Amino acid sequence: MPVIADLIASTIVPFLFKLVGAVALWIVGGWLIQFALKLIRGGLRRSTLDATVISYLLNILAAVLRVILVVAILGFFGIETASFAALLAGAGVAIGAAWSGMLGNFAAGVFLQVFRPFSVGDFITAAGVTGTVEEIGMFVTSLLAPDNVRNIVPNGKLFGDTIQNYSVHEYRRVELVAQLDNSADVGKAITLLKAGLAKVPNQFEGMAGDVEVLEFTERGPKLAVRPYTHTAHYWQVYFDTNRMIVDVLGANGFPVPRIPVAMAAPGTTAATTAGVN
C-alpha cells in the first residue's frame, strides 16, 4: 500500500495537476486568441481590404496561433518541442512543394482581391476565356461565357495573363465592316449608313457612330461602321447594325460586290462567285 500511495503522490497527482493546468491553458489561450482575432478583424474591416481576404487572413492567423498554443501546452507537460517544431517545419515544406500550384493560385487570389483588376459582374477576357465574372474565389474565379457556359479558371492563370476588362468604362466601340462594289457611290453610302446608324437603339449618348472608308480592296472600298455602346448592349447593337447595313445598301440599289475575274477560281466566272462580304 505504501508503494501505491507513493505512486499516486509522485506521479498521478502531478499528472492530474498538469492535465488541469493544460486544460486551463487551452481554454485561456483559446479565449485570448479569439479576443486578439476580434481586435484584428475590427481593424482590418476599417481598411480597404476585401471581406474575403480578411476572412482568409484571419483563418490563417488563427491556425498559426493555435499551433503555437499546442506547442506551449506540450512544453508545459515537459515534452521536448524542438523535434515537434522540426517535424512541423518539414511537413510545411513537403506540403508547400506538393501544393505549390494551389499556393500560387491562393497568392494570385489575394492579389486579385487587393488590386481588383476586375469585380463581380464585369465582362472580361483573360486566360483565353471571355465572360462575366460570377465569383472571385481564393483559388479559382468563375466566368459565365456568353453561350451560358460556366468556366472555372485558376487564379494563377488569370493573374499571370493579360486581362481585358470591357466594363471599366462607360462605353466600348463595336467594330463592323460594309463591303462596297467598285462601282458604288462611296459618299452616298456613307451618308445613308450614318442616317441608318442613328436609328440603332441603345448607343452611348453623346458618342455618334463612325462611318468612314477603312481600306480599298480588289472588290471595292470597305467602310468601317463603328457605333459606341455599353457592354450590356454590345451584341444587340452589333446585330442591329449589321442588319441595318444589309437593309440600307439593299434598299438603295447598291450592287453586290463581285470578285474580280483574276481572283475567281478556275472554271468559274465573276458572276457565279459574287457574294457579300
Task: Summarize this structure as a short list of keywords or feature phrases.
disordered C terminus; SH3 type barrels; 277 residues; 5-stranded antiparallel β-sheet; Alpha-Beta Plaits; Helix Hairpins; rod-shaped; 3-stranded antiparallel β-sheet
Description:
The chain is α+β, with helices and mostly antiparallel strands and 277 residues long. The protein folds into three domains: 2-98, Helix Hairpins; 117-165, Roll (SH3 type barrels); 172-262, Alpha-Beta Plaits. Helix content is 50%, strand content 16%. It is built from seven helices and ten strands. The chain has helices at 2-45, 51-76, 82-98, 100-115, 155-159, 186-197, 234-251, and strands at residues 123-126, 129-136, 140-144, 150-154, 164-165, 172-173, 176-179, 210-216, 221-226, 228-229. Strands 4-3-2-1-5 form a five-stranded antiparallel beta sheet. A three-stranded antiparallel beta sheet has the order 7-9-8, with helices on one face. A two-stranded antiparallel ribbon has the order 6-10. The protein starts with a helix and ends in a 26-residue tail after the last helix. Residues 268-277 have low confidence and may be disordered.
Taking pLDDT < 50 over at least 5 consecutive residues as the criterion, the unreliable ranges are 268-277
What's the mean pLDDT score?
A: 82
Overall number of domains: 3
So how many helices?
7
Supply Rg.
Answer: 35 Å
Task: State the total count of DSSP E strands.
Answer: 10
SS-derived structural category: alpha+beta
- The CATH class name of the largest domain reads Mainly Alpha
Helical content stands at 40-55%
The rounded distance between the terminal residues' Cα atoms is 107 Å
Q: Give me the side-by-side strand order of the main sheet.
A: 4-3-2-1-5
- CATH fold naming of the largest domain: Helix Hairpins
Biggest sheet statistics: 5 strands, antiparallel
SSE string: HHHHEEEEHEEEHEEEH
Range of strand content: 15-25%
The CATH architecture of the largest domain comes to: Orthogonal Bundle
Question: What would the principal axes of the Cα set say about the shape?
Answer: rod-shaped
